[in-house]
UniProtKB/TrEMBL annotation:
<keyword id="KW-0802">TPR repeat</keyword>
<dbReference type="Pfam" id="PF13181">
    <property type="entry name" value="TPR_8"/>
</dbReference>
<dbReference type="InterPro" id="IPR019734">
    <property type="entry name" value="TPR_rpt"/>
</dbReference>
<protein>
    <submittedName>
        <fullName>Tetratricopeptide repeat protein 16</fullName>
    </submittedName>
</protein>
<feature type="repeat" description="TPR">
    <location>
        <begin position="289"/>
        <end position="322"/>
    </location>
</feature>
<dbReference type="InterPro" id="IPR011990">
    <property type="entry name" value="TPR-like_helical_dom_sf"/>
</dbReference>
Length: 491
């Protein structure tokens, strides 16, 4: 069979819809004239007609390897990728076309379609995220990234979703990717980049840095809830290195130090938070009260009664509504033979905590022969009651004071979403054994901090950024979202 007759036969079969037979005819014709692109194109048309797009893709990729890529081959391969639902590869080939021919109408049209599909998926991801359906949001943002894999905003958004899903390593990796894409864009744009684009890129970098802080904080919350206080402290150290202006980070780290018995470090962090939030903030005052009461208890146990009185006095100054603080100071004053002070503190305890089991023995010791009603109805008792009421009313707002005081005997760090359910230490320990492998969590912390060096190297080479508290979802985060945890009081 001649070359010409083979081509005619193949074309006839193709026109009749007999694509496989046409493919065979064109293949035989190609054997008679190897390397002829026209015959290969006819074979490609047959393969495409029968839906064998994978074979088409291999054929086109072979042409690109043997003869070099061209804009036409890139656009052809992009269409094949689209048929095979290989969206990311389609996007990359479209970008390659535009690099060779920026005015290509076919590439411009395909890029617009990809961008529209990405934006639609992003909007659906935002809707699902706002409604709390985070796994579905993650799926939708994955689709958005397949259509636009070089969009730093999408990596930032997915990093936020991963953090909320407590996949902290994946979150940090996406934040790294967002930073690297911004850096690449800056290198490509150079001085010719317009001001609006620079501002947009700077906004992404700024948000990445803030999300990095939140990732550290939230992972610290997770570690804290599982009893990994040292790891939580390490993560909060990194968070504070990145953002020294968030009081909630100092509160959370102070709670970690408190749990580890590092009283001086805990006190320093609480005082730092106090400087930032003000001395009247109940979250700070109640922590300081717990810490001073704890230090007073140790002083009392060691026989340092004067120091114990001073510590208990500081605790009462920070939280004058806690009856057991007055009980502790009363006992310490009794050891110092300060009968007047011991009696006054006992009356305060009796007013604030009349069901305290220490009331009967202390009443017998300090007011022998008198009943509780005798003590409270006496002129001295009435005077102390009035003073106590004035002191407590001058404290914080009743709602804040009551809310935090109710949780005073428990401790749990909080993240930006919600406070975790508080548990007593024995119960928390049981949950830990059932739900988590501590070694795996410790290894994750180590890996997270190693990857963090990449973020620092990218971000710290840039001018300092003023951190806004916005997420890519359009939701505003407040400073208090970083954590207001409740400390454990010890009698």
């Amino acid at each position: 069979m001649s070359l010409c007759s083979g081509i005619k036969q193949g074309q006839c079969l193709f026109d009749r819809g007999l694509f496989l037979e046409a493919l065979e005819a064109f293949s035989k014709a190609a054997e008679l004239k190897p390397g002829c692109r026209a015959h290969q194109v006819r074979s490609l048309a047959c393969l495409s007609a029968v839906g064998q797009h994978s074979d088409c893709l291999k054929l086109v990729s072979g042409w690109m390897l043997s003869e070099g890529p061209t804009a036409d081959l890139y656009i052809l391969r992009a269409r094949l990728h689209k048929r095979l639902k290989q969206t990311t590869q389609c996007y990359r080939d479209v970008k390659s076309v535009l690099a060779l021919d920026p005015q290509s109408p076919a590439a411009g049209s395909m890029l617009l379609q990809l961008q529209e599909a990405s934006e639609q998926a992003r909007r659906e991801a935002v809707d699902r995220s706002l409604s709390g359906h985070l796994p579905e949001a993650c799926c939708m943002i994955n689709i958005a990234l397949e259509n636009c894999p070089e969009d730093a905003h999408l990596y930032l958004f997915r990093g936020i979703v991963y953090r909320r899903l407590k996949d902290f390593t994946a979150s940090l990796e996406d934040l790294v990717q967002a930073v690297e894409l911004c850096k690449e864009e800056e290198e490509v744009g150079g001085e010719a980049e317009d001001a609006e684009r620079k501002d947009e890129r700077g906004s992404v970098e700024e948000e990445v840095q803030f999300q990095l802080v939140l990732t550290y904080n939230d992972f610290a919350v997770e570690c804290f809830s599982r009893g990994l206080f040292a790891e939580a402290t390490l993560l909060l150290n990194k968070a504070i290195e990145e953002e020294k202006g968030q009081a909630g980070l100092y509160l959370n780290r102070g709670d970690c130090f408190f749990k580890q018995g590092d009283w001086c470090f805990a006190l320093a962090d609480y005082q730092q938070a106090e400087d930032m939030m003000g001395p009247n903030d109940p979250a700070v005052r109640l922590r300081l009260a717990v810490l001073h009461n704890t230090l007073g208890s140790f002083c009392f146990q060691n026989g340092c009664y004067q120091e114990a009185v001073e510590m208990f006095s500081l605790a009462i100054q920070d939280n004058p509504t806690a009856g057991h603080y007055y009980e502790s100071r009363s006992k310490a004053s009794r050891k110092l033979i300060n009968l007047k002070g011991a009696r006054e503190d006992f009356v305060c305890m009796l007013i604030l905590d009349p069901s305290n089991e220490e009331v009967p023995p202390m009443l017998m010791n300090l007011f022998p022969g008198y009943s509780e009603s005798d003590v409270l109805s006496s002129p001295a008792g009435q005077r102390i009651r009035g003073q106590l009421m004035d002191t407590t009313q001058a404290c914080s707002s009743p709602s804040d004071q009551q809310q935090l005081s109710e949780q005073l005997l428990k401790m749990t760090l909080t993240n930006e979403n919600t406070a975790s359910s508080s548990k007593d230490p024995p119960e928390a320990g049981k949950e830990l054994k059932l739900s988590v492998n501590q070694q795996e969590t410790q290894m994750t912390v180590k890996n997270l901090l190693q990857v963090q060096e990449v973020v620092q190297s990218c971000l710290h080479d840039r001018p300092a950024l003023q951190h806004s508290l916005h997420t890519d979802t359009g939701c505003r985060m407040k400073t208090s979202d970083l954590g207001c945890s409740e400390s454990t009081s010890q009698k």
